[in-house]
Structure formats: structure tokens, C-alpha cells
From TrEMBL:
<feature type="domain" description="G-protein coupled receptors family 1 profile">
    <location>
        <begin position="47"/>
        <end position="296"/>
    </location>
</feature>
<comment type="similarity">
    <text>Belongs to the G-protein coupled receptor 1 family.</text>
</comment>
<dbReference type="GO" id="GO:0004984">
    <property type="term" value="F:olfactory receptor activity"/>
</dbReference>
<keyword id="KW-0552">Olfaction</keyword>
<feature type="transmembrane region" description="Helical">
    <location>
        <begin position="29"/>
        <end position="54"/>
    </location>
</feature>
<keyword id="KW-0297">G-protein coupled receptor</keyword>
<keyword id="KW-0807">Transducer</keyword>
<dbReference type="InterPro" id="IPR000725">
    <property type="entry name" value="Olfact_rcpt"/>
</dbReference>
<feature type="transmembrane region" description="Helical">
    <location>
        <begin position="66"/>
        <end position="88"/>
    </location>
</feature>
<dbReference type="InterPro" id="IPR017452">
    <property type="entry name" value="GPCR_Rhodpsn_7TM"/>
</dbReference>
<protein>
    <recommendedName>
        <fullName>Olfactory receptor</fullName>
    </recommendedName>
</protein>
<feature type="transmembrane region" description="Helical">
    <location>
        <begin position="146"/>
        <end position="164"/>
    </location>
</feature>
<keyword id="KW-0716">Sensory transduction</keyword>
<keyword id="KW-0675">Receptor</keyword>
<feature type="transmembrane region" description="Helical">
    <location>
        <begin position="278"/>
        <end position="298"/>
    </location>
</feature>
<feature type="transmembrane region" description="Helical">
    <location>
        <begin position="244"/>
        <end position="266"/>
    </location>
</feature>
<keyword id="KW-0472">Membrane</keyword>
Length: 347
């Protein structure tokens, strides 16, 4: 591990290069941070890939709910991959420089996937509303084509939202400083570095963020208000528990994600802390994608059952493989013995 040195800034233009300060104030913890984030990232990839594979393999999971969940898991992989590999490279090599184009690209994709996540969470809440409040028409309304169209709209909308702020930021001048006090190219730290008037870009970012967050959270809240009202009307306690269990995992994920994002952006300016911002950013961009597979697997009986089936199939496959290997070895021994006997007779 190398500690970062400022020699990487020499003879380089502030307009074409940024330096991600990251966790420079915690140089003694570089090895620990690298190992911790590496393990978290690995678990995130494996956990979300497991959800995707199970949703495709198990016929019982071929439903709209798990179609959205598999897309959400793929989105989480993309979301965390935008920032974590670069952060791991910075911690390992000590070279925290990033080109201006690379910074803009990271910024765009971070908010592309983040915006898409808001839309997908809202869609999943709407899906649960239809399943619980309108079960007789659920299968007819949420056909495969409708689900595919809704997911495509979420991804396309998410890709369009960051275009304007990214384009405006690309036209700003950065002559005063090129040191970004963050571990990735977030919008706010980048805007602070500009020597231009940033009122317009701040207004654009605020308006777009407000529209995305408020519209999605409104759909989620309305959906769950109807869901709760419907569940309360169910006479039996078992029926209430069964109905609530189908949306409990999603509700936990929504609470964690929206809670951290709102805490990050809806605070008085006087309480703004750079170190606190980094911690909160780590939580919703690194920790939350890791928690989602755990939440959905532990809280969902169908996912746990699919995992048990997959484990049994894997064990059966391993047993068959060992049997085939044993038979092959036995045949090889017979052939060897036969050849040996023929050789001795020829003598």
C-alpha cells in the first residue's frame, strides 16, 4: 500500500484532472478500508447475482414481483460498481487522480442508476399494491409485456435525468482547485470547485432531485396506504401476516434507501459535515446494495425455498459427478489390467 503523494498533481492542468481526496485523513486505515470495502463489494456481487439466478431458475419465482426484483438486483450491481472499484484502486495504489471526462462519466452513471433505483422501488411498491389490493386482476394487469415496458421506462427515464446537469457541469470552469473532498465524483463537491456562478446548476440539480424523489416516494406512500388499509380489513391474523410478509422486504429496503438519501440531502446547511456526508454516502452507495440480498433472502420464504432447491440440485449434481468419476476410474483400471494381461501373454 502506498500513501497518496501530491506529486501526481505536478505539471497537470486543473481543468483536465481531479484528485479524489477520499479518506486521506485516515491514512493509517488504508489496509483495513481496502479489505472491508473489497469484502462488501464481493458479497454485493455474489448476493445480487444469486437473486438473479434464482429468479431465472426457479419456476415458482417467475412472477412480476421477482422480475422486478431481479432487475433491481442487476441495478444494484451496476450502482455499486460505478464507485467501489475506483475507490478500491485509490486505496490500493494511493493514486487518487481521475480525468475530467472520467469524473463526468462516473457522475452521470451514479445518478443514472440512482434515479433508476427510485423508479424501480416505486414500481415494486405499485406491484405489491396490485397484488394485495386487486388480486383477481393482478395477473391480467401485470403481464410480462407490461412489466417489461415498465422496467424499460424506468431505465430510460433514469438515463435521461442526469443528462442536463452533467452537460451544464461540463461547461463550468475549474481553475481554483481540483481537489474533490469525496471518494467519488459527487455533484455537490464538484460544483463547489467551480469558479463560475453555480446558481443555475444548483437550481437544476435541486429541481430534478426533488421531482425524482418526491414523485417516487409519493407513489410508494400512496401504495402502502392502500396496502395497509386492505390488510387491516382481513379478518384472520394469519391472513394479515401472510399479506404483510409479501411486501415486508420491499418496505425495509425502501425505508433504508429513502431514509439515508433524505438524511443526506434534506438537512440545514449549518449541519453540513464533509465527513458525515462521506459516511452517509458509503451507506447508501455501498452498504445498502449489500444488504438488499440479505433482506430479501431472510424475509422471503419463496427465495429461501428456491435457494434450498438449488442447493439440493447442486449436491445431486456433485454426487452424480462423483459416481461418473468413479465409474470412469473403474473402467480405466479394467482397461489397464486388460492391457497388462495381454502384454504378459504376448511374452
Amino acid at each position: 500500500m502506498q500513501r497518496y503523494e501530491d506529486r501526481s498533481t505536478k505539471n497537470q492542468s486543473h481543468a483536465t484532472l481531479f484528485i479524489l481526496l477520499g479518506f486521506s485523513s485516515h491514512g493509517d486505515l488504508y489496509i483495513f478500508l481496502f479489505l472491508a470495502f473489497f469484502l462488501v463489494y464481493t458479497f454485493t456481487l455474489l448476493g445480487n447475482l444469486l437473486i438473479i439466478v434464482l429468479s431465472r431458475m426457479d419456476s415458482h419465482l417467475n412472477t412480476p414481483m421477482y422480475f422486478f426484483l431481479s432487475n433491481f438486483s442487476f441495478l444494484e450491481i451496476c450502482y455499486t460498481t460505478v464507485t467501489v472499484p475506483k475507490m478500491l484502486s485509490d486505496l490500493f495504489t494511493g493514486n487518487r487522480t481521475i480525468s475530467f471526462c472520467g469524473c463526468l462519466t462516473q457522475m452521470y452513471f451514479f445518478f443514472f442508476f440512482g434515479t433508476t433505483e427510485f423508479f424501480l422501488l416505486a414500481l415494486m411498491a405499485f406491484d405489491r399494491y396490485l397484488a394485495i389490493c386487486n388480486p383477481l386482476r393482478y395477473q391480467m394487469i401485470m403481464s410480462y409485456k407490461v412489466c417489461l415496458l415498465l422496467v424499460l421506462c424506468s431505465w430510460i427515464s433514469g438515463s435521461l435525468v442526469p443528462i442536463t446537469p452533467t452537460s451544464v457541469i461540463s461547461q463550468l470552469s475549474f481553475n481554483s482547485s481540483n481537489k474533490v473532498n469525496h471518494f467519488f465524483c459527487d455533484v455537490a463537491p464538484i460544483i463547489k470547485l467551480s469558479s463560475d456562478n453555480t446558481f443555475v446548476i444548483n437550481l437544476i440539480v435541486f429541481m430534478l432531485s426533488s421531482i425524482v424523489v418526491l414523485s417516487s416516494i409519493l407513489l410508494v406512500m400512496v401504495s402502502y396506504i392502500f396496502i395497509i388499509c386492505t390488510i387491516l380489513k382481513i379478518p384472520s391474523a394469519t391472513g394479515k401476516q401472510k399479506a404483510f410478509s409479501t411486501c415486508a422486504s420491499h418496505l425495509i429496503v425502501v425505508t433504508i434507501f429513502y431514509g439515508t438519501v433524505i438524511f443526506m440531502y434534506v438537512r440545514p446547511a449549518s449541519s453540513d459535515s464533509i465527513d458525515l456526508n462521506k459516511v452517509v454516502s458509503i451507506f447508501y452507495s455501498v452498504i445498502t446494495p449489500m444488504l438488499n440480498p440479505i433482506i430479501y433472502s431472510l424475509r422471503n420464504k419463496e427465495v429461501k425455498e428456491a435457494l434450498r432447491k438449488a442447493t439440493r440440485k447442486l449436491r445431486t449434481f456433485e454426487n452424480h459427478s462423483s459416481v461418473i468419476t468413479s465409474i470412469s476410474s473403474y473402467k480405466a483400471d479394467l482397461t489397464t489390467n486388460k492391457n497388462g494381461n495381454e502384454f504378459r501373454r504376448s511374452k
